[in-house]
Specification:
Largest sheet: 7 strands, antiparallel
InterPro entries: ATP-grasp (IPR011761), ATP_grasp_subdomain_1 (IPR013815), CarbamoylP_synth_lsu_oligo_sf (IPR036897), CPAse_ATP-bd (IPR005479), CPSase_dom (IPR005483), CPSase_lsu (IPR006275), CPSase_lsu_oligo (IPR005480), CPSase_preATP-grasp (IPR058047)
Strand order of the largest sheet: 14-13-10-11-12-15-16
Pfam family, one: CPSase_L_D1
Keywords: ATP-binding, Ligase, Nucleotide-binding, Repeat
Strand content: 15-25%
Catalytic activity: hydrogencarbonate + NH4(+) + 2 ATP = carbamoyl phosphate + 2 ADP + phosphate + 2 H(+)
Organism: Sphingobacterium griseoflavum
C-alpha cells in the first residue's frame, strides 16, 4: 500500500531532558524519524524541551517547539500548525504517556489528529500489567505466576499466594522505577509501598521471580499488511535480575538453540499482532529457563526503545527511519534497504560479526549510592563494540568505557582480594565483568563462578581462555613472540597497552612497532546487514585482524571528528550535538567527513551522518591506526569533550594536525599554574591559587591562599573530584583521596570566593576577531557546578559594568590563547568585581543551549572557522531571542534515594531543559530569583 497522502504534517513528541532510563537514544530515533518523514515531503513539527539534542535543531525539523512536554504545549502547537497526525513512538515512555493524556482529554479528536505508529489502546494493553498478563494467557504465551495489586492489602495477599522470591513491577513507569526483587518476607512491606507510590495509577504486579533464567530481547517491525520481521535478537550476558539497560548485551544471541529461537520468534510475532492494528516498531523481552528452554514473556514495548538504537547500529538497519515510513502507510516491500540500495526493507538482517554493549555507570557522582544492580536501571550511558568474535568485541567495549581500562583486565587495575571478588560476583555492580576475569586469574573454578553469577557457561569459557593466553604470553619477550600467537592475541581483542603491561618491560609504542614489523595490521570490515550476500553501499566500518580491508581510502581531503564516547554525567548529549554539526560543517566545506565514535545511542553514529563512520573505541590505538590509514588534513578534538581532548597531546607528538586551537594553548588553559600566570600578565583578576602534588604541599598552599579553598584535579570534566574544604583536616582527606583515584595528577587549590555569584560566557574566535555567543547569569551561587545550576540568558541582574568586564576578559583571553574556534569562560562576581575561574577552549555544554535560544548555528560557524574556510566576518549573525531563556538542570536522584542530594562543585545532573520567558515578572522566574536571593543573603 502506498503512503497515506492525507498526512501532510506530522507532530513528533520527544522524550524531554536526559534522565537515567531515557537518554539520547530517543534523540537518535526522533531525528531519524523526522528526516525520514521530510524525505516524503511531509512537514515535521517537533516538541521537546531538551536544548542539547540534534532532534531540536532546524536541520532536523521544519518547526521546533522547545516547550514543556504538557498537554497545554501540545494544544498550542495544534492551534498554530495544521497538524494531520502525531507520532508518539520516538520519545520513549514520556511521549507515550503524554499521548495517552492528550487522548484522554480529547485533544486528538478535537483537532482531528490521527495517532500513527501505535494504537493508543495498545499502549494501555502493554503498560497495564494486569491487561498484559491476561492478554498473554489468551494468546498462549507463557507468563510468570503473578497477581495485580492496587492496595497494600492486595499486595500482601498476592505475596502470600505466590511465595518468595518475588518481583514487584509498577505499572506505567520507566526503566524499572519503583520495581525490585524481594527475597525475604521481612523486606516485602517497604518494597510494596515503594512500588505502589512509583506507579501513577497506584498499581503493581506482584510476580514470581525467575532469577537465574536467561534474558533475550527481540526488535520487530510490522507494516499495515501485517508483515512482521525480526530485526535483531539480543542476548543479555547477565541473567534475569538485572535491568536490561544495566546488563551487558550481545547480538546475535550466542547461547540460543535454533528450536528455542524459532519458538521465541513465533511468540514475539503473535504478541505484536495481538496488541492492536498499527504499523511500526516494537521491542519484546523474554526470559528462558536454562534447564529446559521454557519461555515466558516479560514485557512488550510498542515503540522505539533503548534497544532499538542498539539494534539499528548493530545491524545497520535504520529501525526508526523505516518505522516512520510504515507509520504513514508504506509496506516493508515497498521500501528500499538503506544498506544495499538494491533490495527491499522486507528482509531480516544477518550478522557475520558480534556486537557487545556494556553500560556506563557514574556511581562516583553519587557518593554512598547502592551500587548493586537490580530491576531499577542505574546506568547513565553505554558503549557498543563490533568484532568478529564475542571476546574481541568484549575487549573493545571495555576499551571504549572511558574508565581507564585497556581491555578486560591485564592493565594493572585488577582486584586481588578473593573475598571482595566473590562478593562482587554475588552482588553484581558495574565492575562485575572485570571481577569475573580477576576470579579466574586467582584460580577460582569456572563452576564456582557460574553458580554464584548464573551466567551461561559459554560466556565464562570465553573469559577463562584469556587467562590461559596471558599465561602463555608471559613465557615470551617482545622480540620472540611467534607471529601466529601475536596475531591470536590481537584477534582476541588485546590492546597493545595490555600486551605491554603483561610483558612488563616494554612500552605500548614498542608493542605497536613490533607488530607493525610482523605485518599485523587492523583491517576494516563493512557493516552490511546481509553477511556480504549482497553488495553494500554504506560506509560504516569496524576493525578486526584479518587479510582483506574493505575500507577504501579516497583521494579527497579528509577531516576526522573524534566523538565523545559514552554518555556520562559531565559529558553528555551536548557533545554529540557538537560533533554532528562539526560533520555537517566539514561536508559543507568540501571535506570528506569521517566520524570515530562508539556510542550506539547517538546521532553521530548514524551510518548516513558522516561520509565515513568508524564504529570504534575512542581509544588511542584505534584512533591512531585509522588516522595512519586515512591520512586526514587534520583531526577535530574540540567538539568531543574530554574524551577527544585527552588525545591532543599524543596527536601533537606524532605530528598530526589538530584543527582549531593548538594543543599548546589548550594545555595552557588546563594547567592552572600557567593559566593563572597568564591572567596575571593580562591584568585579569582571579582567585588566589596554588598547585600541589602531595598532601603536604596542599596544606602549605591552602594556608597561603586562605580558607575556604576549592580543591580539584587538573584535566577533568564535570567537576570530577572537586570539593570545598574549610580546614586542614578536611583538606588532607580530600587530597589523599584525589591522589588515590587520579595518581600523578596535579591538585589545584583556589581560594573560594564565598557568597559570590557565578556567570559564564561562550565565544568564537577566528584568530583575529572574537564574537561573544552569549553571556549567562547563574541562579545558584559560586560553589555549585555550572552544569547543576539554573542559568539565565542574557544576564538579568549583573550591572552593565560587570557585563562589560566579562566581555573584555573574554576577548583578551581568546586572543592570548590564540583560540581558533570555541571558548567557554566561567566567572565569579562579587559586587562589581569580576574574577575568572577557568577557561575552556572547546565546545561546552552551554553552546547548544545558546544556539537554540538565539536560533543561530554556532557550532557550524565555529567549525568552519576552525577549518579556516571562513572568518567571522563572513557570517551575518542575527539573534532572535526576545526575552530570556532559562537552562534548568534535571537530576536522576530517584534512582539513588540513599545519596546526599546536596549540590556542590562536582556535577550531578543528568540532563537539562530549556524554558523561555518574556520578562522578569514571569512567575517561574520570580520563584528562581527568590532562591538566588536566599543563597546570596544566607549568613
Amino acid at each position: 500500500m502506498p503512503r497515506n497522502t492525507s498526512i501532510k504534517s506530522v507532530l513528533i513528541i520527544g522524550s524531554g531532558p536526559i534522565v537515567i532510563g531515557q537518554a539520547c537514544e530517543f534523540d537518535y530515533s526522533g531525528s531519524q524519524a523526522a528526516l525520514s518523514l521530510k524525505e516524503e515531503g511531509i512537514t515535521v513539527s517537533i516538541i521537546n524541551s531538551n536544548p542539547a539534542t540534534i532532534m531540536t535543531d532546524k536541520v532536523i525539523a521544519d518547526h521546533v517547539y522547545l516547550l514543556p512536554l504538557t498537554c497545554e504545549s501540545i494544544e498550542k502547537i495544534l492551534q498554530e500548525q495544521q497538524i494531520d497526525a502525531v507520532l508518539p513512538t520516538m520519545g520513549g515512555q514520556t511521549a507515550l504517556n503524554l499521548c495517552i493524556e492528550a487522548s484522554n482529554l480529547g485533544l486528538w479528536e478535537k483537532y482531528n489528529i490521527q495517532v500513527i505508529g501505535v494504537d493508543v489502546a495498545a499502549i494501555e494493553k502493554t503498560e497495564n500489567r494486569e491487561e498484559f498478563r491476561q492478554l498473554m494467557i489468551d494468546i498462549g504465551v507463557g507468563v510468570a505466576p503473578s497477581k495485580i495489586a492496587n492496595s497494600f492489602l492486595e499486595g500482601k495477599e498476592a505475596a502470600q499466594e505466590i511465595g518468595f522470591p518475588l518481583v514487584i513491577r509498577p505499572s506505567y513507569t520507566l526503566a524499572g522505577t519503583g520495581g525490585g526483587f524481594v527475597h525475604r518476607k521481612e523486606d516485602f512491606d517497604a518494597a510494596l509501598n515503594r512500588g505502589l507510590h512509583a506507579s501513577p495509577t497506584h498499581e503493581v504486579l506482584v510476580e514470581q521471580a525467575v532469577l537465574g533464567w536467561k534474558e533475550f530481547e527481540l526488535e520487530l517491525l510490522r507494516d499495515t499488511n501485517d508483515n512482521v520481521i525480526i530485526i535483531c535478537t539480543i542476548e543479555n550476558f547477565d541473567p534475569m535480575g538485572i535491568h536490561t539497560g544495566d546488563s551487558i548485551t550481545v547480538a546475535p544471541g550466542m547461547t540460543l538453540s535454533d528450536k528455542c529461537y524459532q519458538d521465541m520468534r513465533n511468540q514475539a510475532i503473535r504478541m505484536m499482532r495481538s496488541i492492536g492494528n498499527f504499523a511500526g516498531g516494537c521491542n519484546v523481552q523474554f526470559s528462558v529457563n536454562p534447564e529446559n528452554e521454557d519461555i515466558i514473556a516479560i514485557e512488550i514495548n510498542p515503540r522505539v526503545s533503548r534497544s532499538s538504537a542498539l539494534a539499528s547500529k548493530a545491524t545497520g538497519y535504520p529501525i526508526a527511519k523505516i518505522a516512520a515510513k510504515l507509520a504513514i502507510g508504506y509496506n516493508l516491500d515497498e521500501l528500499q534497504n538503506q544498506i544495499t540500495k538494491t533490495t527491499s526493507a522486507y528482509f531480516e538482517p544477518t550478522l557475520d560479526y558480534v556486537i557487545v554493549k556494556i553500560p556506563r555507570f557514574n556511581f562516583d557522582k553519587f557518593k554512598g549510592a547502592n551500587k548493586e544492580l537490580g530491576l531499577q536501571m542505574k546506568a547513565v550511558g553505554e558503549v557498543m563494540a563490533i568484532g568478529r568474535t564475542f571476546i574481541e568485541a568484549l575487549q573493545k567495549a571495555c576499551q571504549s568505557l572511558e574508565t581507564n581500562r585497556s581491555g578486560l583486565g591485564a592493565d594493572g587495575r585488577q582486584l586481588r582480594n578473593l573475598e571482595e571478588i566473590m562478593d562482587s560476583l554475588e552482588h553484581p555492580s558495574g565492575d562485575r565483568i572485570f571481577h569475573i576475569k580477576d576470579a579466574f586469574e586467582l584460580g577460582v573454578p569456572l563452576e564456582s563462578i557460574r553458580k554464584v553469577t548464573r551466567i551461561d557457561k559459554w560466556f565464562l569459557l570465553q573469559i577463562q581462555e584469556l587467562v590461559h593466553l596471558e599465561t602463555e604470553l608471559r613465557r615470551y619477550q617482545l622480540n620472540n613472540i611467534p607471529r601466529d600467537f601475536f596475531l591470536t592475541l590481537k584477534q582476541k581483542g588485546y590492546s597493545d597497552a595490555q600486551i605491554s603491561w603483561l610483558l612488563g618491560n616494554v612500552s605500548e609504542d614498542d608493542v605497536y612497532a613490533r607488530r607493525k614489523e610482523l605485518g599485523i595490521n587492523r583491517v576494516y570490515k563493512m557493516v552490511d546487514t546481509c553477511a556480504a550476500e549482497f553488495s553494500a553501499q554504506t560506509p560504516y566500518y569496524y576493525s578486526t585482524f584479518e587479510e582483506e580491508n574493505e575500507s577504501i581510502v579516497s583521494d579527497k581531503k579528509k577531516i576526522i571528528v573524534l566523538g565523545s564516547g559514552p554518555n556520562r554525567i559531565g559529558q553528555g548529549i551536548e557533545f554529540d550535538y557538537s560533533c554532528v554539526h562539526g560533520l555537517i560543517a566539514a561536508k559543507e566545506s568540501g571535506f570528506e567527513a569521517i566520524m570515530i565514535n562508539c556510542n550506539p545511542e547517538t546521532v553521530s553514529t548514524d551510518f548516513n551522518m558522516a561520509d565515513k563512520l568508524y564504529f570504534e573505541p575512542v581509544f588511542w590505538e584505534h584512533v591512531r591506526e585509522i588516522i595512519e590509514m586515512e591520512k586526514p588534513e587534520g583531526v577535530i578534538v574540540q567538539l568531543g569533550g574530554q574524551t577527544a581532548l585527552k588525545m591532543a597531546e599524543r596527536l601533537e607528538a606524532l605530528g598530526i594536525r589538530i584543527i582549531g586551537t593548538s594543543f599548546e594553548n589548550m594545555d595552557l588553559a588546563e594547567d592552572r599554574g600557567r593559566f593563572s600566570d597568564l591572567l596575571k600578565e593580562l591584568e585579569i583578576p582571579y582567585p588566589k591559587y596554588g598547585v600541589a602534588t602531595s598532601a603536604e604541599e596542599a596544606l602549605k598552599v591552602a594556608n597561603e591562599v586562605g580558607y575556604p579553598v576549592l580543591v580539584r584535579p587538573s584535566y577533568v570534566l564535570g567537576g570530577q573530584g572537586m570539593s570545598i574544604v574549610i580546614n586542614d583536616e578536611d583538606l588532607e582527606k580530600a587530597v589523599v583521596n584525589l591522589l588515590k583515584n587520579l595518581p600523578g595528577n596535579q591538585i589545584l587549590i583556589d581560594h573560594f570566593l564565598d557568597r559570590a555569584e557565578e556567570a559564564e560566557s561562550d565565544s568564537i574566535c577566528d584568530g583575529e576577531d572574537v564574537h561573544i555567543i552569549g553571556m549567562m547569569e547563574h541562579i545558584e551561587p559560586a560553589g555549585i557546578h555550572s552544569g547543576d545550576s539554573s542559568a539565565v540568558l542574557p544576564p538579568f541582574s549583573l550591572s552593565d559594568a560587570v557585563q562589560q568586564k566579562m566581555e573584555e576578559y573574554s576577548i583578551k583571553l581568546a586572543k592570548a590563547l590564540s583560540v581558533k574556534g570555541l571558548l567557554n569562560i566561567q566567572f565569579a562576581v562579587k559586587g562589581e568585581n569580576v574574577y575568572v575561574i577557568e577557561a575552556n577552549p572547546r565546545a561546552s555544554r552551554t553552546v547548544p543551549f545558546i544556539a537554540k535560544a538565539y536560533d543561530v548555528p554556532y557550532i557550524n560557524i565555529a567549525t568552519k572557522v576552525m577549518l579556516g574556510v571562513n572568518t567571522l566576518k563572513d557570517f551575518k549573525i542575527e539573534r532572535k531571542l526576545k526575552g530570556y531563556a532559562i537552562k534548568e538542570p534535571v537530576f536522576s536522584f530517584s534512582k539513588f534515594p540513599e545519596v546526599d542530594k546536596t549540590l556542590g562543585p562536582e556535577m550531578k545532573s543528568t540532563g537539562e531543559a530549556i524554558r523561555f520567558i518574556k520578562d522578569l515578572q514571569d512567575p517561574f522566574f520570580r520563584e528562581l530569583y527568590s532562591q538566588k536571593s536566599m543563597f546570596l543573603n544566607a549568613q
